[in-house]
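Worked Example 4.2. Read the sequence first, then its structure tokens.
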Amino acid sequence: MLCRLDISNYALIENLNLDFSSGYSVITGETGAGKSILLKALNLLLGGRADSTIIKQNDKKCVLEAEFNIKRIIPKSFFKTYDIDYDPQTIIRREFSPSGKSRLFINDSPVVLNTLKLFGERLMKIHTQHQTLDLFDKQFQMELLDSFSNSEKEVSEYANLFSVYKLDKQKLVDLVATDAENRKEKDYISFLLEELEEANLDGVNITELENEYNKIQNWSSIKEALESAISIFQGADNSPIASLDTLLTALHPLQQLDPFYNELILRLNSAKIELQDIESDIESKNDLDDLDEEKAILVKEKIESINALSYKHNVNSINELIELRDKLAIQITGFGSVEEEIRELENSISKNHTFLLKQAKEIHAKRKEHIGTLEGSISKILLQLAMPNAEIKIDLVLTDELNSNGLNTIEFLFKTNLGGDFLPIKKSASGGELSRLMLAILVILAKTKSLPTLIFDEIDTGVSGEVAAKMATVFETLGKKSQLITITHLPQIAGKGNIHYHVFKSDSEDKTRTKVVRLSDEGRVKELAKMMSGEKITESAIENAKQLLNS
């Protein structure tokens, strides 16, 4: 409920402070007096876009502020979501600097424009002949039917579970994708690990392998050299050992002549023994070093495998390859399977789908049961609003797939004349007719739920006095359930209001200002009389005004 509206330095308004009450209030004034200024100010407070002409005096900032009682309209959780302090008496303020910059506050918490719009949508609805957008909104149409059929609790429970169901379905899609990606990555890591494990890297010395490979590569030269050495050792006349024997024989007679020769003979004997050992080793080596071609291939493959792995993984040693192998082994154990989680999620989705389907069918049956009564109730109020031939048809379609509204889509069809065709609301009525249809729907909606502040801006334009009187009665009925503010030019509608505000222009100090006053009982009589008879108020107009107020 709107409790207070303060406006300063806005368009033709210097300072304005208005207090509002619950029930039905009316605003009247001459065309051009400034009633639209009030609406524009409220629109700005609800998150509307500003233009450069809003500031009256360019050296002062413009401040718009409104206080709302939001106890039955906005829950505390809504404030928590947007990190705004909760207060049942919520204050919205919007300031515009002379440079055009805007600042927005809810309970003194700075907010962005989108947040203000979200709050504004819950606080107030403004209806004009050319702006009844809620009527075209399928969700609004469904909410009306749910409210009328007393299905809101079931629909809320369904919507909460359906939200979980949708999130679970998306989670399942993500999990399956993650599982596939994990499997793909695990397969790749397993492949790399298998390569490294098959290389049998532990205890391998690449230098020794390369030396062995070099020996195998040079086997022919080695074999030739060994056989040549053996040939020399085994030569008949000039082998090294035979030559030493000849030398020993030549020196032997000198052994007793001088210790020097004795020492020399001992050394030659040692050399002979060493040469005999060398000959034996060469012969043994020559016998053992037959080329093992299979081993040569294996050594070569081992070296090539290690070099290929080093190049592939951009490392420089076997130790680094071993470290990588051990790291991959640890990494692969970290790939937890989500199969069990997927299975549990699939079971949960299946159970929820079954339950949601049952709920949706029950909700559909309940909606279907009340459609005829709702259509009749709307037509009955339209009759009171001088639309005797108007009919509404609610087309509730049963769908194959679950959606946020159950198993239903909805379409309000409308016709205003006998023999006419039912058409979608947007194509079937004038602005005035749509406004009266909206009024009828709000009267019904107000009986079952708390509505935001409702403002009707001159939706009575062009209607006759008889229709105006019927509209006034409906306004009065609606005002008993919700806070209702109506801007009107018709005395029949103004006379039914509990509170009456008058908008007018005042000229002083070469300036024109828009002012708003709350009329007393006497002031209301004069204003209604003026609305009926013009500037010259007649006695009969005054009497008629009094009758309007007392009826």
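Now turn to a second chain, presented in exactly the same format:
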Amino acid sequence: MAETDVAKTDKVIIFDTTLRDGEQSAGAGLTPDEKFRIARQLQKLGVDVIEAGFAASSPGDFEAVQRIAREIDGPVICSLARAVPGDIDAAWDAIKDAKRPRIHVFLSSSEIHMAHQMRKGAEDILGMAVDAVTRAASHCKDVEFSPMDATRTDPEYLYRVLEAVIDAGATTVNIPDTVGYSNPVEFGALIKSVFERVPNIHKATVSVHCHNDLGLAAANSLAAVENGARQVEGCINGLGERAGNASLEEVIMALETREDHYGTKSSINTEEIGPSSRLVADLFGFAIQPNKAIVGQNAFRHGSGIHQDAYLKERTTFEIMEPESVGWRGEAIVMGKLSGRAGLRSRLGDLGYELSDEELADLFPKYKGLADQKREVTDFDLQALMSEQHRFSETDQQYRFEGVKVEAGDMVTPSATVTVGLPNGESKTVTAQGTGPVDAVCKAVDQIVEPKCNLTEFAVASVTDGIDAIGEVTIRVEDADGHIYAGRGGDTDIIVASAKAYINAINRMGVLGPDQTNITFTE
């Protein structure tokens, strides 16, 4: 494709892989229902492609990909597949009911990967790539191919592979910086060379998939756009393997804010960036760092007196984006104990939550209980309440937190009495001692539940400011086989939140179960 042809393409395709590469984050794990909730939010966000998962990896992932393909309309629905027939066929079976299906095939191309991971020669790998794309194209007219570790691949070999897979039917060729090795100047030059050296590149969209090991994923992705790439792959909140992928919110807002420089933009509904970020953080159990670009709690806060003075005189002195444009609510609307059901439903609707009459009836007493504990209930409190509601509803067939009483301090041995609802509908109460109140709570719960697990991580964050803030507790547990499961709980009482989070993690362990395959993959 000539440079003049590239310039005519004024849109960057946004390829979201939160449900695939994002779920490869260490300690992550989503239920099929949680994946569907994220996919529905990504639909509202307006992403062009949803990589819904790796259908061949497990029955659970196949189920999630298939449901998303059948029920999510608008974006292209994609499944990853290794360059083996079984993976490709499973991917097609999972996505074939989508209105716009895509199969994404990947295969190592660098010398180090071919020698140590694949243990095959360059010609064998080339043949495998062509065969895989040919098979995928026999199922689906939209096929993407990724030469894994492209930035450490011999460029001449990379050009050969790309030309061959395009001839075999690839409609998108993705250039992944799999280990986050490249830099913007180098990566931009590689993308430019692909347009110059691959004769049939005009038949395919050039995509990039950058990892963040050196903190350069977003910068590398934007350098690729400057040099003609028209699809960017990444994750909400920068999730993914190791240090993660390019943060889609950063790439999107860079294109939006600096359209004068890049000459292109996406078709994303940017006001859904904030809600998307918060949902992903909640379901994955990974808190957003306060100073995270675009979506962090401090992203639009001004602490310096000089900055505050200038900002109050003219916002644009220190803000290059409007907070509302990314769905950020710095001045959250406040509700209280006198607010009724209609007001609660209306405010939750403004926040993107649509409740049935039954759901509202179930939620309202919990809202009133929260309003009795707090003088003001903010949007952030309501989001925490909804998160707690979803966590309970998705695992309500398992163990249920019913109550806790603790005795703690430096003059007594900490103890906790915990009541847990059992799957058979009965309840059980147990008292245990520990090194602290949370340890005692967990030891009491351990005497009630099956299977057993080890707590590996405990973190607390406040949802809002103030002494009466809701505390969000994230707990990770490990089962006997070393699999990690995350649980979250929220309450104005940290001990209660801890008990909820621990039981939530155990419930998720029961729902998700261990991986049912030994397949390993990356990109």
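Notes for the reader: The longest strand covers residues 454-462. The chain has a mean pLDDT of 89.
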